[in-house]
């Protein structure tokens, strides 16, 4: 009888151990799900948006009306916001392929764009392969749609020159081609490399690389997209033409879109970092503090009731409040959260995302 009880107890213990082993930790699920839950949806949404822009461009080619043009302008913003979310996943190996610069480089060179249009040639992938990133991508499309903050002139130029529409379609098709290359890079190999990257070294650890990119995006926004244009970084001189999307007056919308995606990856996604931090620390304190810091940034964005370009031009003090709140958010990520996660913080590339 004792032997029966012993073996029964042993079976219960073994079953219990099996159950414990089958419960995946948040750290494991992050590695497994970060691509499917975060990266892939962001990339696919951007592809959908650029395909819609091409469709609307074809319609505009047939009828160069103000109504069709307004739809294109609205769609440009949809594309730019969608792409701003993909920047959150522009990890080191991805960045090394320069997809981001080919899809959306800024600032652009209007003179070079005009010279390209004046060539009146076939604007296909062969043509754009040899052209600088300052004359193509979403930055070039913004210039075509909004000129130098003069959308009425932009429409008139399209109506006067069909080669301008050809250039628009060529640039848009090239963006789509680069987007397909970016998606293929992930799906045809790098997602598996990312999944299995569990080395102690940060550059070979998926969790470390992904978290560093969140820090990088926030710091690039603080320095490159707010600080330098506003004269708050190393120089008191404003640099308005270095401001992203100032022609369309969309700078704040793109900043907010990127920050929302950082928050999604950190807290809201099924594959998020907050759950891991709470598991390690046994507390929601830092999660609540970071959430409060996000809300502070959003409040400061909303408090600017003009374009960021105009706010900087008029020395609106709310710009500096936004800059400071971004700095607070960056510190939470790069110091407190990184410490709990035992993540090595890599140098930030403030020249891009």
Question: How would you characterize this protein structure?
Answer:
It comes from Pseudotamlana agarivorans. The protein has 353 residues and is an all-alpha fold. It has two domains: 25-196, M75 peptidase, HXXE motif (A middle domain of Talin 1, Up-down Bundle), CATH 1.20.1420.20; 200-353. It has helices at 2-22, 26-62, 66-86, 92-95, 99-103, 110-118, 125-129, 137-146, 151-160, 162-195, 206-230, 251-268, 274-281, 285-302, 308-313, 317-341. The longest helix has 37 residues, at 26-62. It is globular, with a radius of gyration of 24 Å. Mean pLDDT is 91; it is low at 1-22.
Topology overview:
Layout: H1 2-22, H2 26-62, H3 66-86, H4 92-95, H5 99-103, H6 110-118, H7 125-129, H8 137-146, H9 151-160, H10 162-195, H11 206-230, H12 251-268, H13 274-281, H14 285-302, H15 308-313, H16 317-341
Helix pairs in contact: 2-3, 2-10, 3-8, 3-12, 8-9, 8-10, 9-10, 11-12, 11-16, 12-14, 14-16
């Amino acid at each position: 009888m004792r032997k029966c009880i012993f073996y029964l107890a042993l079976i219960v213990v073994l079953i219990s151990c099996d159950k414990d082993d089958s419960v995946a930790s948040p750290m494991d699920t992050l590695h497994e799900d970060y691509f499917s839950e975060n990266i892939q949806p962001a990339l696919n949404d951007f592809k959908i948006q650029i395909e819609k822009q091409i469709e609307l461009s074809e319609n505009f080619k047939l009828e160069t009306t103000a109504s069709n043009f307004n739809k294109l302008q609205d769609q440009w913003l949809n594309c730019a916001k969608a792409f701003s979310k993909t920047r959150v996943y522009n990890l080191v190996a991805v960045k090394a392929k320069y997809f981001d610069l080919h899809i959306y480089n800024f600032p652009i060179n209007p003179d070079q764009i005009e010279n390209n249009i004046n060539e009146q040639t076939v604007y296909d992938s062969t043509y754009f392969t040899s052209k600088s990133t300052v004359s193509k991508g979403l930055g070039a499309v913004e210039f075509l749609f909004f000129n130098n903050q003069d959308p009425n002139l932009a429409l008139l130029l399209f109506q006067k020159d069909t080669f301008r529409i050809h250039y628009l379609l060529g640039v848009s098709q090239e963006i789509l081609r680069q987007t397909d290359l970016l998606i293929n890079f992930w799906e045809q190999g790098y997602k598996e490399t990312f999944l299995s990257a569990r080395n102690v070294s940060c550059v070979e650890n998926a969790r470390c690389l992904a978290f560093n990119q969140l820090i990088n995006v926030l710091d690039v926004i603080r320095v490159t997209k707010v600080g330098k244009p506003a004269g708050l970084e190393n120089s008191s001189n404003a640099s308005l033409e270095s401001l992203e999307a100032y022609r369309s007056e969309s700078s704040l919308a793109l900043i907010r879109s990127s920050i929302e995606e950082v928050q999604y990856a950190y807290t809201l996604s099924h594959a998020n970092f907050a759950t891991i931090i709470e598991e390690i620390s046994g507390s929601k304190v830092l999660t609540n503090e970071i959430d409060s810091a996000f809300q502070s940034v959003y409040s400061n964005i909303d408090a600017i009731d003009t374009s960021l370009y105009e706010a900087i031009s008029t020395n609106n003090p709310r710009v500096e409040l936004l800059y400071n709140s971004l700095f607070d958010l960056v510190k939470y990520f790069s110091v407190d959260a990184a410490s709990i996660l035992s993540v090595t913080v890599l140098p930030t590339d403030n020249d891009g995302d």
